[in-house]
Design the sequence.
C-alpha cells in the first residue's frame, strides 16, 4: 500500500506541474476525476517491484492415524520373560541291567533318584534350541533275591561273585547302592518359546559321572526256610570291581515341567574280567523348573 500511495502522490504532482505550464486553464470538472481509481489500472506496473512467489511444499503430509485404521501392525519381538530354563532337574526312575546272566537274580522294583542344577545357554541363531550344562548327584538301588555280592573281595577272588544263598542263610532284603557325581550336557528344544511352561519339550545328550561310593546292604538274616534268625543290618563298602567312570546316553520328552526320561550306560559297569558285561539303564519321570 505504501508503494501504491507513493505512485498516486507522484501522479498528482505531475498533474499540478502540467496545469501551471498550460496557457489555457481547464475547468475543475475536466481536470479532477470524480472517482479516484485505487486499483493498479492506469498505473505503469513496470515501475512496481515484482512480488515474491511462494511455491507450496510438495512433501506429502503424514496422514493422521484414526481409531478405525485396519492396516496390520508389525509383529514385535518374541517375549521370553516367562522362559523356563529348567535350572533344576529332579529324576525318579526304575533301574535295571542290560546283559545280565542267570547268576544275577534281581527282584522287586530297583529305583534311582537324581538331582541336577543346570545352566541354560540359548542358541542365538534359533530361539527354539539351547544347550544345558550342569552338575548333580545320582543314586541307584538295585535289589537282589537270595544273593550275596562280595564287593570287598574278602574271598580273595579276582571277580565279583553273585553267590546264590537260597538254600542257606541269606538276607530277606539285599541291595547294591551306587552313588555318582555327574555332569549332564544336553541339547534342548522347545516348540513354543513364548510359553515354555505349557509347550512340548525334548532334550538329548550325555552324562559324565564318577563313582563316589558302592555299598551293599543286607537286612534281617533268614535261614533256608525264610525264618528270621537275626534282625540286623550289614553293610559293606568298596569300589574294587566297578568302573568308577560312567558315560551315559540321555534323552527326555514332555510338556512343561513334566517329562519322561531314559538313560543308558555306554561303558561297562563292572571292570573287564571282573564280572559280566552289564550296562545299567533307567527310565522314569523328570520334574523340571526354575
Sequence:
Amino acid at each position: 500500500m505504501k508503494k501504491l500511495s507513493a505512485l498516486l502522490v507522484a501522479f498528482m504532482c505531475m498533474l499540478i506541474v502540467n496545469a501551471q505550464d498550460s496557457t489555457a486553464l481547464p475547468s475543475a470538472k475536466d481536470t479532477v476525476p470524480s472517482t479516484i481509481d485505487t486499483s493498479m489500472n492506469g498505473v505503469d506496473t513496470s515501475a512496481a517491484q515484482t512480488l515474491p512467489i511462494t511455491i507450496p511444499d510438495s512433501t506429502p503430509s503424514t496422514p493422521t492415524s484414526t481409531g478405525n485404521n485396519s492396516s496390520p501392525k508389525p509383529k514385535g519381538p518374541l517375549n521370553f520373560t516367562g522362559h523356563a530354563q529348567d535350572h533344576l532337574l529332579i529324576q525318579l526312575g526304575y533301574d535295571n541291567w542290560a546283559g545280565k546272566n542267570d547268576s544275577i537274580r534281581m527282584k522287586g522294583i530297583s529305583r534311582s533318584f537324581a538331582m541336577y542344577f543346570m545352566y541354560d545357554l540359548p542358541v542365538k541363531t534359533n530361539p527354539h534350541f539351547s544347550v544345558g550344562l550342569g552338575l548333580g548327584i545320582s543314586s541307584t538301588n538295585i535289589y537282589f533275591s537270595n544273593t550275596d555280592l562280595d564287593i570287598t573281595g574278602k574271598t580273595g577272588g579276582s571277580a565279583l561273585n553273585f553267590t546264590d544263598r537260597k538254600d542257606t542263610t541269606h538276607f530277606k532284603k539285599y541291595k547294591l547302592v551306587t552313588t555318582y557325581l555327574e555332569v549332564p550336557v544336553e541339547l534342548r528344544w522347545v516348540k513354543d518359546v513364548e510359553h515354555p511352561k505349557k509347550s512340548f519339550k525334548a532334550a538329548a545328550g550325555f552324562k559324565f559321572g564318577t563313582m563316589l561310593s558302592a555299598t551293599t546292604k543286607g537286612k534281617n538274616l533268614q535261614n533256608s526256610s525264610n525264618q528270621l534268625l537275626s534282625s540286623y543290618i550289614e553293610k559293606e563298602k568298596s569300589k574294587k570291581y566297578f568302573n568308577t567312570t560312567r558315560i551315559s546316553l540321555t534323552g527326555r520328552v514332555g510338556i512343561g515341567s513334566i517329562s519322561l526320561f531314559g538313560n543308558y550306560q555306554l561303558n561297562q559297569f563292572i571292570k573287564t574280567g571282573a564280572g559280566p558285561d552289564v550296562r545299567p539303564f533307567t527310565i522314569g519321570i523328570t520334574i523340571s523348573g526354575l
Summary: The chain has a mean pLDDT of 81. The first helix runs from residue 2 to 21.
